[in-house]
Amino acid sequence: MERTNDPMPDAPRGFDFFSAGELPAPNLPADEVAAIARDHWGLELALAPLGSQQDQNFLARLANDGSRDASAGTPIGVVKITNPAFGAEELAAQDAAAARIAEASPAVRVATTLRNAEGAPLHVRAETSEGGLDLRVLRFLDGGTLTGDAYLSPAVVAGLGELAASSVLALADFDHAGLDRVLQWDPRVADRVVALLATHHPDASRRALVEAATAEAWAVLAPLAEALPMQAVHLDLTDDNVVCRTERGIRRPDGMIDFGDVTRSWAVAELAISISSVLHHDGAEPASVLPAVRAFHARRPLSEAEIAAIWPIVVLRAAVLVVSGEHQVQLDGGENAYAAAGIAREWRIFERASSVPIEVMTAVIADALREDEHGGGAATAATDASTASERPGIARLDVSVFADAVDGGAWLDGAALEERLAVRALDAGASAAWLPRAVPRLTASTRRSAESPATIPLGVDVWFAEQTRLEASEHLILDGALQQADGEWIAPARTRVRARLGRPDAPHLVRPEYAAGWLAVTDDPAPMLGLADPEPARVSAASTGPSLLARRDASFAEVQEHYYDAPPQIERGWREHLVGTDGRVYLDMVNNVTPLGHGHPGVAEAVARQLRRLNTNSRFHYAAVVEFSERLAALLPEPLDTVFLVNSGSEAADLAIRVALAATGRRDVVSVLESYHGWTYGSDAVSTSIADNPNALATRPDWVHPIEAPNPYRGRYRGAEAARYAPEAAAAIRELTASGRPPAAFIAETFTGNAGGIPLPDGYLAEVYAAVRAEGGLAIADEVQAGYGRLGEWFWGFEQQGVVPDVVAVAKAMGNGHPLGAVITSREIAARFRSQGYFFSSTGGSPASSVAGLAVLDGYAEEGLQQHASETGAYLKGLLEELQTRHPLIGTVHGLGLYLGVEFVRDRETLEPATEETAAICDRLLELGVVMQPTGDHQNVLKTKPPLVVTRESCDFFVAMLDRVLAEGW
Fold first, then answer.
1. Residue 639 preceded by cis peptide, ω within 30
2. Which helix (H) or strand (E) holds 896?
3. Over the stretch 69-117, which tens digit does the pLDDT of each residue have?
4. What's the whole-number mean pLDDT along residues 702-711?
5. What residues form DSSP beta bridges with 489?
6. Pairing state between β 807-810 and 821-825
7. Strand pairing partners for 500?
8. Which ranges constitute the DSSP H helices of 62-197?
9. In the predicted model, is pLDDT for residue 479 greater than 80?
10. What is the structure's pLDDT at 324?
11. Phi–psi pair at 690, nearest 5 degrees
12. Is 759 helix (H, G, I), strand (E, B) or coil?
């Protein structure tokens, strides 16, 4: 192909790939290398081979005991045998560059050449069975590289970008005679390398794809060459050459090895080559590299030309890898296992690099960097409506996440819903109905998908009331219309026509990750079709001002945390699904607030109807509060027949404690460690979960007396020994009385939800309730999380224990998301609360809250949710227990019904909590379309408590995604 703006100098003084001929890698026997080390450095080494494309490497361990076992002992370094094509000046440049980075970036570990006691480098040019070769011992960096196909988290990918920036910043003013060389890996000659080596590729169809992609990328890159800063670069900071520290189960890139490709090239090539290596990893796609680009740009800002050059270089790198790998395998006659093993990996890099047009991916990258700088960007681009203003008599349709038309799961009808809306508009007299460009379409989304669906339209869909002639344009693409001989189009009446303007290869719908890129290279056809008046390009306030998350952080109390560091914006839900503004549907496996599922029509209609009629406080006389109180009390055994209505679980727990204090005339309360009861003064006082409050154990008031958590899995007593918890708790209650502080109450979750969905030991509550009652106190059952049918076989958690409490606190499920809580006790105990004056809650038991509660109870009965929880919960637990047999990280699966906990441990013997791994697994699950969060004092349990309407298909998807995460990494 013709080269323009040739960026390469003439006649390099060092290695020149194009005149060097073939480059077979050295292949010395380990014994010969060990003998050289012994003779020249006085080292007895045990050597294990490491991979290399064109050199030869051995991991070296001291073998002074005479052992040649390469797997024993601590590594001291890597013996690198350099390809003889590279000269002394080039090796000196490599050593100097490594030393420069090590000096400039102390936090970065660098594989410099080791020195002996006299300070001389362990570097020798030795005569070998293959002639004269240079051998060096490089510093060994422990922790391992990112070699392999395992998933790389955004944090790890960002770490690659940070290391690339460290290299570029450190080497910005570095110069050395040994940099004057021409390497096949230098993107400045990528087109020539492909032209030279492509003929060696055995697959003609793949060869043609590589050649075409190379020509396209070079055509974009060549005009940019003169604007790209040049400097010394490592040029091979790939996953194979980046070393990580593993801290509490999480990898953090912090080291670089193998400076064999150090040369002078474009600075941006350091970044592009690094991110290209991400693309072969499990779950990777072009958008996966953005964290690295952002991290690099934050430390070493990229120019416009460099931004435009990134993706062409990535494609060229991939093309060079493909042709070079095939060539090296043939050259080494099958002896180079490293090169042979890389063939499939390198093709995967090429396929993914070329899966998105260069122009589009460049716009995606530019948008991501603008988003970082201005707080807008991709998220805004995908949700902004068309910039054109609509015309009178034309109906603009809306099937976004915000549209009323998609309520009640109507969006699941997909294109059929769009057709119904269009026909309805035309029947009402509209001359046309249309769906605009750039507005995410929920109708295009799918449930239970590991990948975001294509929901962002690049064009418009239009239905004309009458047959309509549309003028021709070479850039207008119409589907559903008929083109005439004169080039104009005829759109049939009342028939969907899809229109796009711009690139002919543009799909009609694209995934949100790439929407900003595709929207930047296409145009809105609405004005051309007469659907809207064109407006000048504008930037919305949302894209230049702070993001919604930043606004939340600025106005919402910081202590009111949100799930995830980079949360999706959730604006809709349906049954066990949550929906983001971009149309991505997530499976909600954590939300026990909505047992009937999100967006339940019965609850929504009942509350809306009541709000239209009346909503006031419970001191007024109306029917709903009476009916709800009666039905709620009827769900409990005698003598629990009297109801207090409040707004939340915290208020319910607080009121339950106040009732007990008033009924007994005492002030001391016994609670259980690892529990959470709420945020009010009273409910917080008896909460001892250090996950919710790290200072909980040291800050309890003197009237609270926590006892040991009866955890049969990781507590002091395990398995059958867990029966000892109850007698010890009873003894503690008696001792409290003996000390002159008889308890007013014992409060406990009836099922240890906050600790991970762990059932209490059999008979625990029976013995402890008996003990507190024997001392004149009351038994309070906190059913906020476990109650209301979630356990399946039992509607209340205390039923599973075979007891009846004196006071019950309940909330969450009661209102299906509407603020509603209750305390239920006996008439006698409730009457004693009169000593505290009257009780009143403005909205507790309001007409709207009461009808919400009634609608929820109706839903339970109509949909058989308690039975469903029992059957589906057993099914889900069985799936999770099978997963446990294949993944050692799963220590156990707790729970009953649809209150389950998957506990992760680093060691099944020591039960060391896998806290950091659990958080990372939750983040990875979100990427795969599952909402999940950790719980427990160690935050190492997946709190698996989905809406009770969750289907077996959703359970299958959740377990499949968890299986994938545990197999691929997090």
1. yes
2. strand 890-896
3. 656 778 999 999 999 999 999 999 999 999 999 999 999 999 999 999 8
4. 96
5. 470, 483
6. antiparallel
7. 477
8. 88-104, 154-170, 190-197
9. yes
10. 92
11. -80, -15
12. coil
CA atoms of 688 and 937, how far apart (whole Å) = 9
Helix (H) or strand (E) holding 764: helix 764-774
* Alpha-carbon span 316 to 218, nearest angstrom: 8
Cis preceding linkage at 392, omega within 30: no
Which residue has 């060549």 as its token pair? Answer: 222
Whats the size of the chain, residue-wise?
970
- Residue 186 in 3-state DSSP? coil
Three state DSSP letters for 618-640: CCCCCHHHHHHHHHHHHCCCCCC
Q: Tell me the mean pLDDT in the region 909-938.
A: 97
Residue 492: exposed, middle, or buried by beta-carbon count in 10 A (0-12, 13-18, 19+)?
middle
The whole-number average pLDDT for the span 490-515 is 96
Lowest mean pLDDT among 185-189, 562-566, 708-712: 562-566
Say whether pLDDT at 340 is over 50: yes
- For tokens 């001389």, the residue is 120
For the cut 50, the answer to whether the pLDDT of residue 407 exceeds it is yes
Mean pLDDT on 722-740: 98
Regarding predicted confidence, which is higher, 142 or 390?
A: 142
Two tokens at 256? 């670089």
Angle in degrees, CA 718, 722, 725, rounded to 5: 130
- Distance of alpha carbon 336 from alpha carbon 24, whole angstroms: 9
Burial class (CB within 10 angstroms; exposed 0-12, middle 13-18, buried 19+) of 796: buried
Tokens of 639: 């003598």
Q: Give the CA distances from residue 226 to residues 8, 306, 316, in Å, rounded to whole numbers and listed in that order.
A: 11, 11, 18
Quote the pLDDT of residue 57.
93
Mean pLDDT, all residues of the chain: 93
Residue 192 one-letter amino acid = R
- Mean pLDDT across 409-431: 98
- Select from 771, 677, 680, 687 the least CA-distant residue to 726: 771
Q: Using the predicted structure, report yes or no on whether residue 688 has a pLDDT greater than 70.
A: yes
The whole-angstrom separation of Cα 302 and Cα 298 is: 9
**Residue tagged 């958008």 (tokens):** 287
The dihedral sign for the CA sequence 37, 39, 41, 45: positive
Q: For residues 192-204, give the mean pLDDT.
A: 94
Q: Compute and round to an integer the Cα radius of gyration of the chain.
A: 34
Asked if 943 contacts 901 with a C-beta cutoff of 8 angstroms, the reply is yes
Let me know: does 754 contact 676? Beta carbons within 8 Å.
yes
- Coil vs helix vs strand at 476: strand
Cα angle vertex 471, ends 467, 477, to 5°?
Answer: 90
Token pair in block for residue 370: 């603008």
Confidence of residue 465 (pLDDT cuts 50, 70, 90): very high
Structure tokens given for 808: 């019950």
CA dihedral 684, 689, 692, 695 (to 10 degrees): 80
- Backbone φ and ψ for 571, nearest 5 degrees, come out as -125, 5
Q: What span, in angstroms and rounded, lies between the C-alpha atoms of 710 and 726?
A: 8
Type and span of the H or E element at 210: helix 204-221
The Cα–Cα gap between 464 and 430 comes to 9
pLDDT tops 50 at residue 10? yes
Tokens standing for residue 745: 């109450």
Nearest-angstrom CA–CA distance, 553 and 441: 29
Per-residue tokens: 962: 């968890």
- Which pLDDT does position 7 carry in this prediction? 59
Predicted pLDDT at 381: 39
Instruction: Answer yes or no: is pLDDT of 844 > 80.
Output: yes
Confidence of residue 535 (pLDDT cuts 50, 70, 90): low
Angstrom distances, CA of residue 227 to CA of 5, 165, 189, 218, 532: 11, 19, 17, 15, 41
- Measuring CA to CA, how many Å separate 622 from each of 187, 611, 847, 851? 78, 14, 7, 11
Q: What are residue 896's phi and psi, to 5 degrees?
A: -140, 150
The percentage of residues in the chain with a pLDDT greater than 70, rounded to a whole number, is 94
